[in-house]
Amino acid sequence: MRFNHVANRLDARHFETVVEMLRTQLGFVELRRTERAIWLRQPGSNVDLQFSRSDTAHRDEDKPRSQVSFLSDTPREALEALAAWARDRGLEAAVGAYSDREFWLDLPATFVDFVIEAMRPELADYGIEA
């Protein structure tokens, strides 16, 4: 088997807003779409994101432990910019920290089972060739 994609759930009411954020703010392109889901890829990466529409009212209490993760030289600032973008569209947004090099963004009414993480690139330097 070969790794293909990761799937997470978005509240159906805010599905298109998050897709717009990923496309306009982070450069993702749409690969495929169905009535319930979308597959996206950020050019230059080799892992795809699938988001499924969800009508669940429950939000995982420990969802900061499940992330869609990005690398950034300025991770807090990058997430604060996404939070401001989301707030401008009427969504509640919270930015928190795991450490001084790892941060997370939650859109509580939107992200069902994950947060967006941004971390310094050196944290992903594992010393192996891919």
TrEMBL record:
Chain intervals for the UniProt region annotation (Disordered): 51-70
Per the record, the domain of life is Bacteria
Indicate what this protein is called per its UniProt record: VOC family protein
Q: Show the ranges annotated as biased composition (Basic and acidic residues).
A: 55-65
In terms of InterPro entries, this protein maps to: Glyas_Bleomycin-R_OHBP_Dase (IPR029068)
